Write the structure tokens for this entry.
Amino acid sequence: MFKPDGNYPLQLHGFLRDQNKIWTLSRENYEALKNVQTHTFDVEGNVVKVQFNPARMTSTSAKVDAASISTRRCFLCRENRPPEQNDFHLDEDFYVLVNPYPIFPEHFTIPLKEHLPQLIEGRIMELVRITSELTDEYVVFYNGPKCGASAPDHFHFQAGNKDFLPVFEKGGIKKEKSIWTKSLFSAEVSGIDDGLRKYILIESGSPESITAVFTHFDQAYRDFRDDDTEPLYNLVCARDGDNFRLLVLLREKHRPSYYFAEGLGQILLSPASVDVCGVCITPRQEDFYKVKEEIIKEIFNEVFISSDQLKKLEEII
Ligand SMILES: [Zn+2]
């Protein structure tokens, strides 16, 4: 098991406080978050919040195509960061940075020290390890390069308060909606369709088991989809005492049709881990008022794989 040598939550609370003392942009955005407008919906028995957060415009509308990425300076590389942005040395490989455009009351970006592409292959153990170090207070998550990462060229995780995400509230993970369940590498693995999301839930007290199941699944899923590139994943990892839960949210698309619609029909909602875990971000006020249960259902239905596909995955893993 991992033995973190410090009390990371306590250190991170202090790190955020210190950053906000010296960094006006970050301080103002965290202050604004305290009065953020939120609507709460029940969609097919799932809690979904919609947050009107204008500071997220840059991220929501980020151009993530190769040409746009190659012409901008990487904002996760140390030499390009704003002078006020300090880094917290988590370990040999990763820094923790305060995310100055927060969604969570405490929102961190965890970039690899080296500028290497956003690809999960070979790094799932790091996701579970960092989740373990950050304890039950935070979730640690990964947005795939084609599925919500605004820096697909620089490997990074993010972390935020676990109790902020509806899916981690009591009854948020609906195991009773499992289409199938099996035991694999001493982990319990379930394919869940909760009426909104389709995902694989991997649960175990052993980080090695979680890693083994994900690695096995990832390869089988690539073969299943007949695509050598990384499937569209949002990965969200949480620790509950000695137990770990990894949610593999299986996406069909990054952005829904509403995003690309023109004029009044357009809704700027670009779903990544936080959105699909129950906090949908709308940077524009008009979208905040437009998004209701039916639209949420429609968007989730479009950006996740189908229930039929999820059913078929039982046979491949
Ligand atoms: Zn970089």
Remarks:
- The chain has eleven helices and 13 strands.
